[in-house]
Amino acid sequence: MGAETSYDMRPSLISWSGGKDSYLACKRAVDRGALPKVLLNVMNEHGDRSRSHGIPREVLAAQANCLRADIRFIESTWEAYEERFIEKLKQLRSEYDVTQAIYGDIDIQSHRDWEEKVSVAAGLQALLPIWQEGRLDLVKEMISVGIKPLIVSCQKSLADHLLGKVITAEMLPLFEELGIDACGENGEYHTLVIDGPLHHKTLEVTLGDRQDHGHYSFLNLSLKT
User: Fold this and answer.
1) Which of 129, 152, 207, 216 has the maximum number of C-beta atoms within 10 A of its C-beta?
2) Strands (E), 92-147
3) 46 near 57, Cβ under 8 Å?
């Protein structure tokens, strides 16, 4: 399953965080023939920020516009996450006639198991285009193809080093020096892609102040006017 499966011009839903992994997974799927029809993002229960990355709804909507893509949102608590996700997958399968769901997970088996579970429950096939590839190799590929991931949240201890920076080849030695997984798979950081090969125009955002919540720091983002 995953990369070895044929994508063959099949209409697809993209599980979308707005960050680098879902972006690269979408690009890989497009390169293999998939037809992205709709992006799906899960917001917090207030509906104002994404549950995974803390990105404002209007910024994600503007990002989708830069990709000329439809985006749909779910508002959910962690407790209702699975139920709401399956419900939305079913709705979008019917509305967009999609047959497969694309996910950007790399190598955490429990995440893949969950994605396959909810996809099957909604009558879709789960595909993971970047599954079990080297994390550092994936980051290098993102950089080489022109994906520009802006670090929008990170562990508080790393905020002075990372927050508000775009990942470039020059940053990789810093990751190593700080003992950070290249892809941030241990929760070190999260990103928002502001430009890349799927963009038709750059996403213009204003970087606001930093907010700390527990052991994590978030960058307040707004759209440039």
Assistant:
1) 152
2) 100-102, 125-127
3) no
Q: For 63-105, what is each residue's pLDDT tens digit?
A: 999 999 999 999 988 888 999 999 999 999 999 999 999 999 9
- Which pLDDT score, from 0 to 100, does residue 4 have? 46
Cβ neighbours, 10 Å, residue 31: 12
**What is the 8-class DSSP label of residue 41?**
E
Find out whether 34 and 25 touch, Cβ atoms under 8 Å: no
Task: Give the residue ranges of the chain where pLDDT is below 50.
Answer: 1-4
Residue 45 near residue 75 (C-beta atoms within 8 A)? yes
CB under 8 Å to 213, separation ≥6 — which residues? none
Residue 131 · residue 3 · CB < 8 Å? yes
Number of Cβ within a 10 Å radius of residue 88: 19
Q: How many CB atoms lie within 10 A of CB 97?
A: 9
Q: Is 195 exposed, middle or buried (0-12, 13-18, 19+ CB in 10 A)?
A: middle
| Whole-angstrom distance, CA of residue 55 vs CA of residue 60 | 7
pLDDT on residue 10: 87
C-alpha span between 202 and 196 (Å, rounded): 8
Collapsed DSSP state (helix, strand, coil) of residue 196: coil
pLDDT of residue 27: 97
8 Å CB contact between 128 and 115: yes
